[in-house]
Each structure stands twice: as structure tokens, then as C-alpha cells.
Specification:
Keywords: Amino-acid biosynthesis, ATP-binding, Kinase, Nucleotide-binding, Transferase. The chain is an alpha/beta fold. It has helices spanning about 15-30, 45-55, 65-85, 90-110, 115-125, 125-140, 165-180, 210-220, 255-260, 270-275, 330-340, 365-375, 395-405, and strands at about 1-5, 35-40, 145, 185-190, 195, 200-205, 225-230, 235, 245-250, 250, 280-285, 295-300, 310-320, 345-350, 355-360, 380-395, 410-415, 420-425. The chain has 2 domains: about 1-300, Acetylglutamate kinase-like (Carbamate kinase); about 310-425, 2-Layer Sandwich (VC0802-like).
């Protein structure tokens, strides 16, 4: 049976981390058909975003794009030198080729195609460079590894930055072309990226490499997926924010899906569905302690779930009001939600009153601005920035009091099992730009 291993940026951030990754792969290679999915190394994706933005929208005081490009190349070359001792000529030639293409695309695409389309053609290089380097190192260790291009196996539409999978084509291609390779050797490929029918690169959303692993697992009917992280598994809260966190040894697919929807960052929100449809277990384990069992996500809900506390930063709240106090109308709701869908804007919370409708969404200045511009003539619109959405699943009053101590909730909602509140990120007093909003207080 095939097993899928996914390694994120933290597990590849330097030479020592890559050696550790190689040890984990070597330990599991015997007797298993392995497909390895890798992310970009360290903070490379963020630096590629900075590179693309520097070419697209040059600003005074911001790093010159050539400096950013050289920084990215130097980072990868330094890791390679530490791994190989000296850069092999074949790797130098590969870097020349990849970074040459990256520079050409980053400098030309912002002025020739829509911003999001160019973004995908540039950001993909983080995973492409990373996968080549890791594959070359594993081959150097005499492991039977073949580099695979995900763009030839995962076919998508042209929804740039959030591409949708053509599942029938992808599964057929994976079964015909990839499955036979896995019987002979380890395959190593890129997370985060796919390709269109005409050969253009797409991306699956930030942190989308988990989703890539799930796509391959679904198509190969894999025995399991393991995501290797720098945490011991799935905790009930961010240990940087909450003391005495609890490790969930087991979670149901449904519970994990809800946690990721509300903002838990350990796994990508789209990862669960393709695994549940074929009852494929998902393990979240620590690459720092690879012998520990971590968390298993599968069928069945454990009894007595402890509260899960999720903080989702970088939120923006938008309030829409009617101009004649006659707002409550299904048509107005449809207009607003349809405009959000056109911008591919993810809504994390919404609430309506007699004369207004509120949404809380991820901070994306371009999408939000386009949304506001498209609806400005129909509604009065107010926007609040610098907010955080707090979600507590399986809450109790002591947990709410502990988490909300010292915070001012602008909006609160609760259902039988889930409490949510929108609060200012900063402890500073609210500014005039923040909308005075109604509150829905918990009953009892």
C-alpha cells in the first residue's frame, strides 16, 4: 500500500532539518511505497511574495527585487553546500536554469497578465526549487528517488491562487502514470501547485501542500497520510497563547474539518474531505520526535472533547447598511454574498440585524477593496481592521472567561457547541474607524 509523507517548510528550513527529513524517509522506505510531498523551504514563499510585489508595485524603502532574488538563491545555495560539501556542477546548472526562469517571470508577468495569474507562475518556484534540492540530496544518499512534477498530475481550473481540482482527470492520470512508478521507487513531488489543461501553473491556496498530499492519497487509495510538523500533533490551543495545552491523540474527520475551518493552522482546511471520502487516516506527527504517535484523524468521535481554542488573526469586519432602513431582504443578502463569491473572499462569521449585515473575513486588501467598490453605490459600508476571531469549540463558561479576560468583544455568537468573538488585535483603545456593532450575547 502507498503511504504519503508531507514535509513542510519548517522541516526543510536548513541542512540539519533536511538531514532529519532524510532519516525519517530512510526509516520508512523499506516495505512501503512512498510518495513524498514537500513545501518550499523555510520562509521562501513569503520572500517570493515580496519579490513578485516588488516587481509589480515598486515602492521606495522596499528591498529591490534583484536583492530579494539573490537572497533567495543564496539561501538555497548555502543549504546545498552544507548538504553536499561542494555544489555539484549539475546542481549549479539547475539553479542557473530555475532562477533564470524565476527572474524572467517575476519581472515580466506583473505587466502582462492579471496579478493573481502572475502570482501563481512565480510562487510555484518555492516548491519546484525545494523539491529538486531534496530529491538530489536523497539520491546522493543512494535512496531510489524520482522527482515528479505535480503540474503534470494535478489538473485544475484557472481560479488563480485557489485552483479547483479536476478530480476525474487527476485520478486517471495518477493511476495510469504515477502508481506504477511507486512500485519501483520513492516519488518526490511538490505541494501547493497544479497545472491547467494548457500548461499554466496554478496554486491551491497558501499552505496548500497538505491538500496536495490528500489529493494524491485519494487518487492512489493510499493506506495513510502523515504530515510531519514541528509540533507533537494537534493541540487544543496555540501553546504560545494558552498555557497547559492538551494533545488530542485522536480526532474525527468532522471535528478536524471544523477546527481547520475556524482557523486552526496545523492542517490545511481542504485536506480532510478527500481523505474522509475513502476512509484514509491522517496522522500529524513531530519531525522533532518522530517516534511519538502524534494525532490520528479518522472515523469516530472521542468522548469528552476538551475545549479547542482557535485564534485567527488578520481579520477584517465589514458592515453593510441600507440607505432607507429597509435592509432585511433576501435579495440584499444575495447581492453581498454573491459579490464575496466573485472575489473568492472567505467569510468566517456573519450576522444580520433589522437594518444591517455584517461579515468577518480574512484580511486581503485587494479583494476587500474590490468588494467595497462594487457595492458602494448600493449600501453604506464601514470597515474595521486589525481584528482577531476567537473560536472555542466544546466551550464552557470558565474557558470563555479565561480566554476573553481583558478583551472587548465587538461581536459574540454561540451555538450549542461553539462560541465565537471578534476582538481588536491591539490592546489600544478602539479607533474611530471601528464600526459600533450590535452584540449577540450567549444565553444564560
Amino acid at each position: 500500500m502507498v503511504r504519503i509523507f508531507k514535509f513542510g517548510g519548517a522541516s526543510l528550513k536548513n541542512a540539519a532539518a533536511i538531514r532529519n527529513t532524510a532519516d525519517i524517509i530512510r526509516q520508512h522506505a523499506a516495505g512501503n511505497q512512498l510518495l513524498i510531498v514537500v513545501s518550499a523551504m523555510g520562509q521562501t514563499t513569503n520572500r517570493l511574495e515580496a519579490l513578485y510585489s516588488a516587481y509589480a508595485q515598486p515602492q521606495a524603502g522596499v528591498d529591490h527585487p534583484q536583492e530579494i532574488l539573490q537572497e533567495i538563491r543564496q539561501y538555497h545555495e548555502d543549504i546545498a553546500r552544507e548538504l553536499f560539501g561542494e555544489l555539484p556542477e549539475t546542481l549549479v546548472a539547475l539553479f542557473d536554469n530555475l532562477f533564470g526562469k524565476l527572474e524572467t517571470k517575476a519581472s515580466s508577468l506583473p505587466h502582462s497578465v492579471p496579478f493573481d495569474e502572475g502570482y501563481d507562475q512565480v510562487l510555484c518556484y518555492g516548491e519546484i526549487i525545494s523539491s529538486h534540492l531534496v530529491a538530489r540530496y536523497l539520491q546522493h544518499l543512494e535512496l531510489p528517488v524520482e522527482w515528479i512534477d505535480s503540474r503534470r498530475y494535478i489538473q485544475t481550473d484557472m481560479t488563480w491562487r485557489e485552483a479547483r481540482i479536476d478530480w476525474l482527470w487527476t485520478e486517471s492520470q495518477v493511476q495510469r502514470q504515477l502508481a506504477p512508478k511507486l512500485k519501483q521507487q520513492i516519488a518526490l513531488t511538490q505541494g501547493f501547485i497544479g497545472g491547467t489543461v494548457d500548461g499554466r501553473t496554478t496554486t491551491l491556496g497558501r499552505e496548500g501542500s497538505d491538500f496536495t498530499a490528500a489529493i494524491y492519497a485519494h487518487c492512489l487509495r493510499a493506506a495513510s497520510v502523515t504530515i510531519w510538523k514541528d509540533v507533537p500533533g494537534i493541540l487544543n490551543a496555540d501553546p504560545k497563547r494558552i498555557a497547559d495545552t492538551y494533545l488530542y491523540p485522536n480526532l474525527s474527520y468532522e471535528e478536524a474539518a471544523e477546527m481547520t475551518y475556524y482557523g486552526a493552522t496545523v492542517i490545511h482546511p481542504k485536506t480532510i474531505r478527500p481523505l474522509k471520502s475513502r476512509n484514509i487516516p491522517l496522522y500529524v506527527r513531530s519531525f522533532l520526535n518522530p517516534d511519538a504517535p502524534g494525532t490520528c484523524i479518522g472515523e469516530g468521535q472521542p468522548e469528552g472533547m476538551r475545549p479547542a481554542i482557535i485564534f485567527k488573526r488578520n481579520q477584517r469586519m465589514i458592515s453593510f447598511s441600507g440607505r432607507d432602513l429597509t435592509f432585511v431582504s433576501e435579495h440584499n443578502h444575495f447581492v453581498i454574498l454573491n459579490a464575496c463569491a466573485r472575489q473568492n473572499l472567505h467569510i468566517n462569521l456573519m450576522q444580520n440585524s433589522a437594518i444591517s449585515f455584517l461579515i468577518c473575513c480574512d484580511y486581503n486588501p485587494w479583494k476587500v477593496q474590490e468588494l467595497v467598490d462594487s457595492l458602494r453605490e448600493q449600501f453604506e459600508i464601514k470597515v474595521s481592521d486589525d481584528l482577531e476571531l476567537i473560536t472555542i469549540k466544546h466551550y464552557d463558561l470558565p474557558t470563555i472567561e479565561k480566554v476573553m479576560k481583558g478583551k472587548k468583544a465587538l461581536v459574540e455568537q454561540n451555538t450549542l457547541h461553539t462560541y465565537q468573538a471578534v476582538v481588536p488585535t491591539s490592546a489600544e483603545p478602539l479607533q474611530d474607524s471601528v464600526v459600533p456593532l450590535f452584540e449577540w450575547k450567549p444565553i444564560g
